[in-house]
């Protein structure tokens, strides 16, 4: 027969002692956990269970977490670029920096794959529009295709040799803007404004929004357009003639994508300082202007100097001989510099891309 061994009293007591020691350890862990954590920083009554990754604020529940974000405006997102001292720099901080660099590389690679970013700055359509506008003495420039103003531009050139403009009208005294598409450049500004501020012929909905313009006399309304190609601290405007067509008003002016017109009442005209001459001197005519200035200075040269010649019969001031030196006289250089300075109005930027 097999004998059955029963646990002795010593073995039983050892097991009981182990259970008691485990219970004592669990009881000790409880108080330690309560001591290690602080009180909730939001309500101040409960034990804190969570720590905000963004500002390290302690909270006890979801309600306190939401209240903390609402009151402090904290987004709860850890600052990946926060400064960490060398004594606190550990493996977790190193891993965080490594993942941050991975995210940066992934974002840069995604931007390079974006079709909008890789698209050309100007399309073939934009080049044709700029070429046709140049024939009408209009300088038309375009923004990259990623810009909203470039995407919403609906301007096109017809077979009848006219522009159908994408037009933006701003009425600052009513805080209202309107976008009008397919506006012929042969229409006058008066015809364009008739649908907006005419007392009887305008659209009823637009008339209600522009009541202050409708009630004002028509001669108290002026149309301005911002002069492009100037410094940010020197904003100027062109005053357009309401009786003339849109093509005539845009002639000898610079546009970015499409015309933006400001319709202003009389009390606010002084807020739109005007630019200088409406027709700037082109690069080709500037050369002629410089030459005239040089000739004008030559007339004031004394007769004795005008008649002075080199031994080979060359006039040293006029430089008419084939053997005239390539170096220009000081008076001619000075005249050129003065002519270039006079061409640019104060605050205007020079565009080196313009050609004759």
TrEMBL record:
Establish whether keyword ATP-binding is in the entry.
no
Which PROSITE patterns does the record match to this protein? Answer: ZF_HIT
BP terms from Gene Ontology: box C/D snoRNP assembly; maturation of LSU-rRNA from tricistronic rRNA transcript (SSU-rRNA, 5.8S rRNA, LSU-rRNA); snoRNA localization
Q: Where is this region: Disordered?
A: 1-30, 293-356
- Has the keyword Ubl conjugation been applied to this entry? yes
Compositional bias of type Basic and acidic residues: which residue ranges? 347-356
What Gene Ontology terms describe where this protein resides (cellular component)? Answer: nucleus; pre-snoRNP complex
Please list the residue ranges annotated as the HIT-type domain: 40-74
Matching Pfam families: BCD1 (PF25790), zf-HIT (PF04438)
Keywords from UniProt, A to Z, are: Isopeptide bond, Metal-binding, Phosphoprotein, Ribosome biogenesis, Ubl conjugation, Zinc, Zinc-finger
Which stretches does UniProt call biased (Polar residues)? Answer: 1-11, 303-324
Q: Which GO terms fall under molecular function for this chain's record?
A: zinc ion binding
Matches recorded under InterPro entries: BCD1, BCD1_alpha/beta, Znf_HIT
Question: What is the stated purpose of this protein?
Answer: Required for box C/D snoRNAs accumulation involved in snoRNA processing, snoRNA transport to the nucleolus and ribosome biogenesis.
The subunit field of the Swiss-Prot or TrEMBL record says: Interacts with FBL, SNU13, NOP58, NUFIP1, RUVBL1, RUVBL2 and TAF9. Interacts (via HIT-type zinc finger) with the RUVBL1/RUVBL2 complex in the presence of ADP.
By sequence similarity, the record places it as follows: Belongs to the BCD1 family.
Q: Please give the PANTHER family that the UniProt record associates with this protein.
A: BOX C_D SNORNA PROTEIN 1, BOX C_D SNORNA PROTEIN 1-RELATED
The identity of this protein, by name, is Box C/D snoRNA protein 1
